[in-house]
Amino acid sequence: MAAPADPDGAQEPDDAEALAEARRLTTQDVSFVKGVVDLGALPGGALPEIAFAGRSNVGKSSLINALTQRRTLARTSNTPGRTQELNVFDMGGRLLMIDMPGYGFAKAPKAKVEAWTRLVRLYLRGRPQLRRVFLLIDARHGVKANDREIMGMLNEAAVSYQVVLTKIDKLKGTDQARVLAETEAEARRNPAAYPVVLATSSEKGAGIDALRLAIAELAREGA
């Protein structure tokens, strides 16, 4: 089921204590660990992980910066394919956050794009501490063929994922409701998809707290 949205696309959490904890987790003591191009270089240990995936230029870096209240924690660029490795961030020693290379179109040599794609596939299929992938979809364009390919791979690997619509503020209210409904219907067809679709805007802050709450819940489950 899609989470209820306000006119700007935000899901409205109503538990003040849980929200305060979620904000602390995602905004305090968040630090960059390293970028890796080989799975063997990823941190070991038992910390649960979340990952952010999405097409090139979907607004992933902007969303991570809004989530963590950092302007430059994740690098942003108008050039698709800027993220070229698995970027690892630590959230207060409770959770690792992985920023994955964008898939689909990228202004880079074909061999490099293929290498990024292979890295993403290997990571998604072989990381047991991965609790959930937040799959970002541009609200203006909806679910595309390469999104469905990733969704199919996640279904096959039995990796839980949650669809997060980005740039919801770029749509009018009636279009927001339509896109949410269409995306919810798409998610229902995928067994590994988490049933709640989040609608966010990095620019306006819509839906960011709902995303924080989802992440905090995963951290508690992994404790």
TrEMBL record:
Q: Which GO terms describe its biological process?
A: division septum assembly
Required cofactor(s): Mg(2+)
Q: Which UniProt keywords apply?
A: Cell cycle, Cell division, GTP-binding, Magnesium, Metal-binding, Nucleotide-binding, Septation
A Pfam entry, by short name: MMR_HSR1
Domain (EngB-type G): residue spans on this chain: 46-221
> Does the record carry Cell cycle as a key word?
yes
Give this protein's Gene Ontology molecular function annotations.
GTP binding; metal ion binding
Keyword hit for Coiled coil? no
> What transmembrane ranges does the database entry give?
none
Q: Name one GO cellular component term.
A: cytosol
**Which InterPro entries does the entry link to?**
G_ENGB_dom, GTP-bd, GTP-bd_ribosome_bio_YsxC, P-loop_NTPase
Question: What role is this protein assigned?
Answer: Necessary for normal cell division and for the maintenance of normal septation.
Regarding protein family, the annotation reads: Belongs to the TRAFAC class TrmE-Era-EngA-EngB-Septin-like GTPase superfamily. EngB GTPase family.
Q: HAMAP family from the entry?
A: GTPase_EngB
Protein name as catalogued:
Probable GTP-binding protein EngB
What organism is this sequence from?
Futiania mangrovi
